[in-house]
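Quick one:
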Amino acid sequence: MNFNEFGFDPRLLEGIEAMGFETATKIQEQAIPLILAGKDLIGSAQTGTGKTAAFLLPITNELLFVKENKRIKALVIVPTRELASQIDQHMEGLSYFTSVSSIAVYGGTDGAAFSKERQALIEGADVVVCTPGRMIAHLNMGYVNFEGLQYLVIDEADRMLDMGFIDDIMKIISYLPEQRQTLLFSATIPLEIRELAKKVLTHPAEINIAMSKPAENILQLAYVVYEKQKIPLLKFILQSANEHIILVFCSRKSSAKELARDLKKSGMKAEDIHSDLSQDDREKLLMRFRNRELKILIATDILSRGIDVENIDMVINFDLPHDGDDYIHRIGRTARAEESGVAITFISQKDQHNFAAIEKILEKPVHKGVVPIQFGETPSYNPLKQSRGRGGRS
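Output:
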């Protein structure tokens, strides 16, 4: 379906063309008409399906015909600073030929950035993209006026649930007018998200875009190892691929920091990126990574969703992700733009049962590589036995 079939304003179509969009994705085809019709919506779709444009395009189109100025008309709540910045940039491109304004409101910045946000909130940017904590900081100071709000978008709802933001979201919603159109997007729809939807949406339509499998051009490989073998094996792989751009995922900030320090001591040029860094420092690291100036980036799951870096040659799961969704999001950082890529996962003894669950989602086993003999004996892959060894739970 072409974008001119939605009946968008010519000014918006000009922005769509400038962004290089040609045909709508599945989520866009299904969501845009419903949003234009004024329906509340639950959209189940993962990152990479085009859901950002699925809500930005119809909202921007409708705001072109709203005469009221100096009011916040749309609020988009997201879990991370990176996603807030990315959606704001997306919005800036799509609305370039229109009069619709936007601002990203998120923490980790200096006082000048906070003052800029404050001014925009007082004057009434059309679209505000925010992280929960930063928005609450502004709300507590009493100058944010949501009386003219027409649209609320809750994006990556399951991720915000995992990060403990649901109470913050409900607090923000308490400041919003009851008469509004609410859109909720989530990669998965667990029971807690269903309960949230019942509280904040009115007779919503529902769209489910099936979770896609990893791209066929991703070579998936796993190594079954003892925990103490992970760092030596990682160094071996990195040294063997020293000209490649590699993203390494750790489960915790502390692990990412320790791993980066260890690699640097070994003479490797590696950096760690996580929520403890300022937004400016994180953006500088990502820019170096995009430009291939930095070859090894150690990250927490803050980068598994919503980050657009197209030149990553290899993703390594140093720590196993929590579930299949996270696994697919992580390895989906490579093999973008129809390029090929490699995804390597380390499976420690305690991870075997969880990795078997991931393989079930993938509907096929991931090839288990042979660990070089110099690293010593490795465990066998027997997830059922490992599960029983932790108390017999399946």
